[in-house]
Design goal:
268 residues; alpha+beta; Arc Repressor Mutant, subunit A; Beta-Lactamase; 49% helix; 17% strand
């Protein structure tokens, strides 16, 4: 009897996966496409990229614009609004993470005279959910709400290093699907090195003269809920040494972890 029930349940699950939701699929396709196009796209460009006709996506664009998810820019280009970002911020776990992190980040920025930002994983990209500047005239910062390739960010590698194996596999599969690339050959060696050290410290992938230092923020299962990063710059005037910045950053990431009920882990 148990076998029959299991077979029936499996069949129902398979049917559920096959249910057609073309309107929803088209809407999500449009949002995901525009998320990768900061300059926006015209109706014709969207249709071409999605291999659909303009008439197929016209109603979808009207609906998404009416609901405030996209807006029409000059030159008849459509672009994402901040509505999705606001929805993510209103999600209770994310909201709590931001609320608990901001005071700690302000103290860190004032203590080190360096900017800092907190990134979380969204699909296969890193999203900057919080950012704080130091009380100085000169500094380097990452734009709040911006996204970056997980393979081009210190915070991305830190988050990958502290994902569960099955979660890491899903993330890498989605990254490969979106970019059409294969993960770096030395990825596992890189992630193992981060786990051993407990953090990532390396020259910026995108900006010369910046050393990114990133520590994980853990959730209640010991996986990375996000990463706290300082893009370290060395000004001509005396400032806190990089080793002292690293210690302050480590303590701040641990403080945020404890505040959200996360499980601290030691380096291996």
């Amino acid at each position: 009897m148990t076998g029959k029930r299991a077979t029936k349940s499996s069949t129902q699950s398979e049917k559920a996966l096959n249910y057609a939701t073309p309107a929803l699929e088209k809407g999500l396709d449009v949002l995901e496409l525009l998320a990768r196009q900061p300059a926006g796209l015209t109706k014709s460009q969207i249709a071409r990229e999605l291999h659909r006709t303009v008439s197929e996506i016209f109603r979808m664009l009207v609906c998404l614009e009416r609901r405030g998810y996209i807006a029409q820019l000059s030159g008849e280009r459509y672009s994402l609004t901040l509505k999705l970002f606001k929805l993510v911020q209103e999600h209770p776990p994310t909201e709590r993470l931001i609320v608990d992190a901001i005071p700690v980040m302000h103290r860190l920025a004032h203590e080190t005279m360096q900017s800092c930002h907190m990134g979380v994983l969204e699909g296969s990209r890193v999203v900057i959910m919080a950012q704080v500047n130091p009380p100085a005239n000169i500094g380097f910062y990452v734009k709040l709400g911006s996204t970056g390739d997980i393979m081009e960010a210190a915070s991305g590698y830190v988050i990958l290093a502290y994902q569960k194996p099955e979660q890491l596999e899903r993330t890498l599969a989605e990254w490969s699907r979106e970019t059409g690339k294969k993960p770096p050959r030395d990825l596992e060696v890189h992630l193992a090195r981060i786990r051993k050290a407990g953090f990532e410290k390396r020259a910026s992938y995108l900006v010369k003269g910046i050393v990114n230092i990133s520590f994980p923020i853990y959730d209640d299962r010991g996986s990375a809920a996000g990463a706290l990063t300082v893009p370290y710059i060395q000004p001509n005037t005396p400032t806190m040494r990089i080793d002292k910045v690293m210690e302050a950053l480590k303590q701040s990431a641990a403080e945020i972890t404890v505040a959200i009920g996360g499980k601290l882990r030691s380096a291996k």
